[in-house]
Every structure is written in C-alpha cells, then in structure tokens.
Amino acid sequence: MTIQEAAQRSGLSAHTLRYYERIGLIHSVGRDHNGHRDYAQEDLRWLEFLTRLRTTGMSIADMCRYAELRRMGKHTAGERRELLKLHRERVRSKIAELTEDLKVLDYKINRYGDMA
Prior knowledge:
Layout: H1 3-10, H2 14-23, H3 41-55, H4 60-72, H5 77-115
C-alpha cells in the first residue's frame, strides 16, 4: 500500500511515517516498481504497536532502542521484555496519578453540585 494508504490506516501522517523511517523506528519500507514506498500488512501491525508505545508515553529514544533490538533478532528478547516491563511500570504509575487527579475533579464537581 502507498504511504498515503498506510498513513490513513495507521492514523499517522505521511510526514510521521517518513520521520519514523529516517530515525530507524521503521525498517526500510519496500518499494514498488516506480520506487514509491510499498507498505505491507506487517508494517501496519508494527506501526500500531509503535503508536501504542507513544500513546502510553514511551520516549522516542526508548522506542528506537526497542526497534534496534527487534532488528537484532530473537537473542534480544530478554532485553526487549525488560524494556517493556520498565515502561509498563511507568504507565501504571501514570494511571495511579491520573486516578488521584480524577478523584479531586470528582470531588470538586460534586461540591459545585451541592452549591447549585
């Protein structure tokens, strides 16, 4: 599929896809007979995973490290797992913070409801 189709399906812009390729988050995407990028279904699955990492706050540097380890092969599985476990703990911590923030908001909303 073209870069525009991949962008539409992934929810990322074509600019972001080119950037991800340039910094090594995406391997060199295949090319069609005209030399245009030709994304495969596997590329979309990888983009979905990268999007989830980014949405949950993983840094671009950590994402690049993960991508580099992935390209190195199965013998890096343990290191990739540890990277994901560390990120999971950061996500859990952020969820706990947000839960406390939500409680404060709920309290304030209820207080204003009592005043009406």
